[in-house]
Amino acid sequence: MAAGQGMRFRSYSKVIPKAMFLIDGEPLIVRNARLLHAAFNLDVLYIVVGHKGDMIRDSVNKIKGVNCRFEFIEIREELIPKGLLSGYSAIVPYLELDEIFVSVLGDEYYEGVDHAGFADFVKSSLEFSVCCGVKKCTFSEEYFNNYSVDFKKGGAEVIQVREKPSQISSPYFGLGIFAAKRKLAEVAEQNLGLTAKCNFIELFNVLPKLGFGPIRGYEFRGGYFNINTRTDVFKVKRFEREKRWGNFTVDVIIPAWNEAESIAYVVRDFLPVCRRVIVMDNNSPDGTAKIAREAGATVYSEPLGGYGDAIKKGLDRSDADIFIVAEADGTFRGEDVEKLLIYLKNADAVIGTRTYWQYVEYGANMSFLQRFGNILFGSIITFLWWNRRSRFTDVGCTFRCMWRESYQKISDRLVGKGPEFAPEMVIELLNTWQRVIEIPVPYHARIMGKSKFSDNFLASAKTALIMLHLIILKRWRVWVDNLKVIGSLIFDH
Q1: Three-state DSSP class for 348?
Q2: 135, 231, 322, 415: least CB-packed within 10 angstroms?
Q3: Is residue 15 pLDDT above 80, yes or no?
Q4: CA separation (Å) from 333 to 73, 150, 252, 476?
Q5: Per-domain residue ranges for the chain?
Q6: CA 4 to CA 87: how far, in whole Å?
Q7: DSSP 152-219
């Protein structure tokens, strides 16, 4: 079942349906198709589609290693708001009389769950009208976000189910995987056209009364998440990432131009907390490249178009799972990498902010005017991209980290070659609907030397104007693209 609009996702589901959210590089619906096929050795898998069905079709048709036939059942647009009633009504013509079908919601995540055991239970001789997967709840939100399952004492027979219960009456809640007879789909079809509001899950309770057998429950163990909101997606991502956290590789990328005085200290500071320190040297005449290599860095010395160009080319040369960007002047330290990584478990990218006075070291290059400017530009981006639900106070801070897959989504969209690259990266992460978190980081005084972009008022003003121009340009292009889409819809009709 993958036809829903994902109303609680709103802005996000306009871009991508819930069933297509990537978990460990694979869409949820593809993952569920694999699990079902492994448990039941399927001949045919029907995918019920509606909202953005073409995207789901393309993804499912590319699955490799699943040798069953895929067929797609289209839900008419006007029926999509009816939810599961419309989905299960649509499958009636595909079912034989008294045939049992197995159903899974496309937006649910399972890990280490015994689907094969459920398959054996369904194939057993026990009579049932519906056999639903259940799980013991560990937190009350699991119970209230799903449906409750009340068992008869000492058995697998279910007394009743209730969608979105208001109080806890059982230790079990129901999952979106169940087996049922065709009669359930027929009852859904009968209720589809009724004016009175009908909840699909509670139709389970009707079948035993009609003499089609009891409701039974099969307890699943392992990881399970019901993807109702954007937050749920990142709960799953964190769950997946923590299992493999010690195996992820981390590279630190440092742009450098004439930083011979400080680069060795910086390289040696970051090496203990990463796999490699990659220094992108802009053919510095002061020996920066040689000193960085001797300190243990991987150095690329070549003509670069500026600060942003150096970072982008460094990111492109890394094959790590996680990228960290830092400065060559010692204003950020290796001891704070762990802080970024902790938040990255639950995000696509983490951006530092230097605007917390308590974290600004005495002597650091952060005057009142510079701090005001950082907060202003962060507020502008927060306002212009308000529906991304990210909040910024310093989009120019270099100290940041992101997943490689997050960077790959935006790499072709990055054009800035100078200091404007920092806010541009944030903007493109937002444009691709990725989760960006800002956290305060300590901001130290330069080890030696002078800043190339904010050493004096004139340099700071020039940098600010370049950034402002890019912000306006990027937002204007999004508005123009949206107007083109609206115009094409109007004129096409």
Answers
A1: coil
A2: 231
A3: no
A4: 55, 55, 11, 36
A5: 11-241, 244-468
A6: 9
A7: PTTSSEEEEEEES-SS--SSEEEEEEEEEEHHHHHHHHHHHT-SS---SGGGGGHHHHTTS--EEEEE
Indicate the pTM of the whole model.
0.81
**99 three-class SS:** coil
- The region of weakest confidence among 161-170, 335-344, 443-452 is 443-452
pLDDT digits (tens, 9 = 90+) for 277-322: 999 999 999 999 999 999 999 999 999 999 999 999 999 999 999 9
Topology of domain 11-241 in CATH is Spore Coat Polysaccharide Biosynthesis Protein SpsA; Chain A (3.90.550)
Which amino acid is located at 24 in the chain? Answer: D
The rounded percent of the chain whose pLDDT value lies above 90 is 53
Angle at 267 between CA 319 and CA 247, to 5 degrees: 40
Gap between the Cα atoms of 178 and 392, Å rounded: 44
* Cα 426 to Cα 421: distance, rounded to the nearest angstrom: 9
Residues 439 and 343: beta-carbon distance below 8 Å: yes
Question: In the structure encoding, which two tokens stand for residue 350, read together?
Answer: 């983490």
CATH code that applies to domain 244-468: 3.90.550.10
C-alpha pair distances (Å), 126 with each of 108, 176, 226, 459: 27, 21, 28, 78
Q: Two tokens at 433?
A: 């609907």
Q: Are 244 and 270 in contact (CB under 8 A)?
A: no
33-to-70, 91, 164, 218 alpha-carbon distances in Å: 10, 17, 26, 20
Q: Which of 262, 246, 220, 418 is nearest to 322 (CA)?
A: 246
Report the first-to-last Cα separation within the chain, whole angstroms: 29
For the ranges 86-100, 400-414, 472-486, the one whose mean pLDDT is highest: 400-414
Q: Are 28 and 109 in contact (CB under 8 A)?
A: yes
Domain 11-241 matches domain 244-468 at the CATH topology level: yes
How far is 409 from 335, CA to CA, in rounded Å?
A: 29
d(CA 101, CA 87): 14
From the list 237, 246, 367, 258, the residue with the least C-alpha distance to 310 is: 258
**Greatest CA span in the chain, whole angstroms?**
87
